[in-house]
Automatic annotation (TrEMBL):
The keyword Nucleotide-binding belongs to this UniProt entry's keyword annotation: yes
GO molecular function: ATP binding; ATP hydrolysis activity; transmembrane transporter activity
Pfam families: ABC_tran
InterPro entries: AAA+_ATPase (IPR003593), ABC_transporter-like_ATP-bd (IPR003439), ABC_transpr_LolD-like (IPR015854), P-loop_NTPase (IPR027417)
Organism: Cohnella faecalis
Record domain ABC transporter: where: 5-232
Taxonomic path: Bacteria, Bacillati, Bacillota, Bacilli, Bacillales
GO CC, one annotated term: plasma membrane
PANTHER family: ABC TRANSPORTER ABCH.1, IMPORT ATP-BINDING PROTEIN
Origin superkingdom: Bacteria
Protein's UniProt name: ATP-binding cassette domain-containing protein
Keyword line: ATP-binding, Nucleotide-binding
Length: 233
């Protein structure tokens, strides 16, 4: 089975100008994901886990290294060097990202956020609405909130909406950054069900979890981060 994602010698640091000091966040990181795999990354807070995901999604631009993604649209792409236009297209159609924080467009309802994600994939309005309803019902988001603005939601409601918006696209690669951080047990189980469903459909996933119990039975492999360096778990 071919690799969908290959990271070689990835490094990322941040400059603290007020201290005139450079802080390393990821140091010579190497990992790979085969198509259909679920790979987990564990480690303490501040070890560099989220930095890896943000470099893949290109929220952060790496200082050095290669992030080779086997795109269905563009073929092999180095995400560390690709143009902004290419990255935007990949985010729309092939790479999803779930964080524990919801970043939503202002004055956009929960229903519109999920529906827009589906329409970005080129689906028609009827299909988009049908899938939106199914996803919001799956996560048991109160129907009274569907046409409300997420700014008024609780932390758990925002997180469920964030997960719904990313998963409804069924991307080729799904990045999960502590997606169950503020969810109750019932909501965690619903996330797990969707992850299992996406795995059966062939979605490749790279996930960060503090909840190690949640990862049991899901991950094909596990990497551990410590002080910006990665090892096999």
């Amino acid at each position: 089975m071919d690799n969908l994602l290959t990271i070689e010698h990835l490094s990322k640091s941040f400059m603290l100008h007020q201290l005139d000091k450079r802080i390393p966040a990821a140091i010579d990181v190497n990992l790979h994901l085969k198509e259909g795999e679920f790979v987990g990354i564990t480690g303490k807070s501040g070890s560099g886990k989220s930095t890896i995901l943000r470099c893949i999604y290109r929220t952060y631009l790496p200082n050095s290294g290669m992030i080779k993604f086997q795109s269905g649209t563009f073929g092999a792409v180095d995400l560390a060097a690709a143009s902004e236009r290419t990255i935007i297209e990949l985010r729309k159609r092939e790479i999803g990202y779930v964080s524990q924080f919801l970043s939503a467009m202002p004055r956009t309802t929960a229903r519109e956020l999920v529906r827009h994600a589906i329409e970005e994939m080129g689906n028609d309005a009827d299909y988009a609405e049908e899938q939106t309803v199914a996803m919001l019902e799956h996560f048991e988001l109160d129907r009274g909130l569907w046409d409300s603005y997420p700014a008024t939601f609780s932390g758990g409601e925002k997180l469920r909406l964030n997960i719904a918006r990313a998963m409804v696209k069924r991307p080729r690669l799904l990045l999960l950054d502590e997606p169950t951080a503020s969810l109750d047990h019932s909501s965690k189980l619903k996330v797990k069900l969707l992850i299992e469903q996406l795995m059966k459909e062939g979605t490749t996933m790279l996930g960060i979890f503090h909840d190690l119990e949640f990862m049991q039975g899901l991950c094909n492999r596990e990497y551990q981060m410590k002080d910006g360096q990665m090892g096999i778990g």
